Amino acid sequence: MQIRLRANWHKANEFCTTLGMVFVSMKSQVEHNELIRFVEKMDKFSNATRFWIGASDLAEEGTYTWVSSGQLLTFSNWADNEPNNENHAEHCIEIILNIYVNRVWQWNDNECRNPREYFICEGVDKHCIENF
Ligand SMILES: [Ca+2]
Ligand SMILES: [Ca+2]
Predict the structure, then answer these.
(1) Is the pTM higher than 0.70?
(2) How remote is the CA of residue 88 from the centroid of ligand 1, in Å?
(3) How many Cβ atoms are within 10 Å of 16's Cβ, its own excluded?
(4) d(CA 9, CA 59)
(5) How far is the CA of 126 from the centre of ligand 2 (A)?
(6) Sign of the CA dihedral running 22, 24, 25, 30
(7) Cα distance between residue 3 and residue 15, in whole Å
(8) Distance 43 CA to ligand 1 centre (A)
(9) What is the reported pLDDT for 129?
(10) Counting ligands in written order, which one lies closest to the CA of residue 92?
(11) How confident is the model over 74-86, as a mean pLDDT?
(12) Could you give the domains of the chain?
């Protein structure tokens, strides 16, 4: 599910929770690529876009975790020279498409308070709920 509005990383996380969903996470490059294919299908992103995903190193600089599970990242898709923690202020992960600087759905750390037009929530696995 994708929602159009501008939100910083924290607001995006809140919004997913309010919807009964979680901020998107990925366990593997395969899951990452599936997400990208999902985004590409919307065909409004031809040349450049960026969106938040649910990972940060807010708890400990340089150690990235998924906010939905608290688990460490098991893979990454960083762009060249990222994450760079610019000005010691970049702690949240966005995915960037910008064909002009040769970034094709690669990750960047950016300031969590920056608004983005897009972020991605995902549904909680129903099996988890049924098993309780
Ligand atoms: Ca950081
Ligand atoms: Ca960065």
Answers:
(1) yes
(2) 6
(3) 24
(4) 14
(5) 35
(6) positive
(7) 9
(8) 31
(9) 53
(10) 1
(11) 97
(12) 2-130 (3.10.100.10)
